[in-house]
Specification:
Layout: E1 5-9, H1 10-24, E2 30-34, H2 42-50, E3 55-58, H3 61-69, E4 76-78, H4 87-93, E5 96-99, H5 102-114, E6 119-125, H6 139-147, E7 152-159, H7 171-188, E8 194-196, H8 203-208, E9 217-220, H9 222-226, E10 228-229, E11 234-235, E12 244-256, E13 283-288, E14 300-301, E15 307-311, E16 316-319, E17 330-335, H10 337-345, E18 350-354
Parallel strand pairs: 1-18, 2-3, 2-9, 3-4, 4-5, 5-6, 6-7, 7-8
Antiparallel strand pairs: 1-12, 10-11, 12-13, 12-17, 13-16, 14-17, 15-16
Helix pairs in contact: 1-2, 4-5, 6-7
Bound molecules: pyridoxal-5'-phosphate.
Pyridoxal-5'-phosphate binds next to strand 9 and helix 9.
Length: about 350
């Protein structure tokens, strides 16, 4: 088979989605499956939907196009504020988008009118993580603006925590969002049907809370794809952590000295990696035909007894320990979110999706 190759177990993705959907349903919370970690793969999105996800979200218009072209008919959400330069495409391919900018909302309104359609909008609220979001004090005003714009429908409010500064989503933050929902409903005489409480980092709160308040949706990527809670990168109970595996091919195998020799300056990507303890024995090392262009080497988990020694654009150097490895063999790795994102994006990595 071709290498490098990202093997994707769609059964694991369906299982993870179903498990989370079933545990969140009693709280009144639905799941928007986020496909960006898998580059908007229609196969991955279909697995999320067959596991009970109610919609698919992605941060890139191009990925939303790929989802539609790949046969996904469920509602699609653009989970990043639209670029002004892409508003026409956003109205065409997204049923709903997350927004924070008045100018973008104006442009979405014009685009929706010119296409003879309407576009649903969720306003994102800043609750302390300092990435996207409108200040709480300005939410009602911006909501009024949206309800006054032809072509736009105010679907609800949302927030995003943890991604930028690791701020933990908790009862206080979620209560604040619920309170804002009620203020907007009173001020604008509308009912908000979407209250999107956050990403996978909000699961810790959602799965244990006594009262979810008005929160009725989470946008889940990493928890579904990798089975991990991003706040501590620990496995979520009952979820599979093995949906993705990266296979790479050995192009050189040699036993090399423990240490490089000669004057030391910068390596291809900055400081050379610390190779290993001084005086250590020679190393059986393999070069794999994959590199930083295809994967984040820090996000790879090799088999026990192997370790990653370093990587440049297209060479990944590993110590193979006692493993029986030859040139032409494949070596495989588990991936974290960063390694997954990059390997899903690299045109040099073949994706193989399997449905059991
Ligand atoms: C990426 C993203 C998500 C999904 O995050 P995970 O931690 O992978 O669940 C949700 N919402 C927004 C706005 C995002 O950018």
């Amino acid at each position: 088979m071709t290498a490098p190759r990202l093997e994707i177990d769609l059964g694991a993705i369906r299982h993870n989605t179903r498990s989370l959907v079933e545990r969140l349903a009693p709280k009144g919370i639905g799941v928007t499956g986020v496909s960006k970690g898998a580059l908007g793969s229609p196969g991955v999105a279909a697995a999320m939907l067959s596991g009970g996800g109610s919609a698919v979200g992605d941060s890139r218009v191009e990925n939303l196009h790929a989802l539609r072209a790949g046969g996904i008919t469920a509602p699609l959400t653009l989970i990043r504020s639209p670029m002004l330069s892409q508003v026409d495409a956003v109205v065409r391919c997204a049923d709903l988008s997350l927004n924070t900018e008045g100018r973008v909302l104006d442009a979405l309104s014009v685009a929706a009118l010119s296409q003879g359609t309407t576009h649903a909008v969720v306003l994102m609220v800043e609750l302390g993580d300092l990435r996207e979001g409108i200040a709480a004090a300005e939410v009602v005003d911006l909501a009024r603006t949206v309800t006054g714009r032809p072509g736009l429908v105010l679907a609800g409010l949302g927030t995003n925590l943890a991604c930028q500064n690791g701020i933990v989503p908790d009862q206080t933050k979620m209560d604040e969002l619920s309170k804002l929902v009620e203020q907007v409903e009173v001020a604008c005489h509308v009912h908000l049907s979407v209250v999107s409480g956050g990403n996978s980092a909000t699961l810790g709160w959602a799965l244990t809370c006594d009262d979810a308040g008005r929160i009725d949706d989470l946008r889940l990527g990493e928890a579904i794809l990798l089975g991990l809670d991003p706040l501590h990168r620990t496995p979520l109970e009952g979820l599979r952590t093995d949906a993705f595996r990266l296979f790479c091919e050995v192009i050189e195998l040699a036993t090399k000295p423990a240490h490089p020799w000669g004057d030391v300056a910068q390596a291809a990507f900055g400081s050379p990696p610390a190779r290993r303890a001084p005086g250590a024995a020679p190393v059986r090392q393999a070069i794999l035909a994959v590199g930083r262009q295809d994967v984040d080497p820090d996000g790879l988990t090799p088999a026990s007894g192997m370790s990653v020694l370093g990587a440049s654009s297209d060479h990944l150097v590993i110590s193979v320990g006692d493993h029986d490895v030859a040139v032409g063999d494949e070596v495989s790795f588990g991936v974290d979110y960063s390694a997954l994102l990059r390997s899903a994006t690299s045109p040099f990595v073949t994706k193989v999706e399997r449905l059991p």
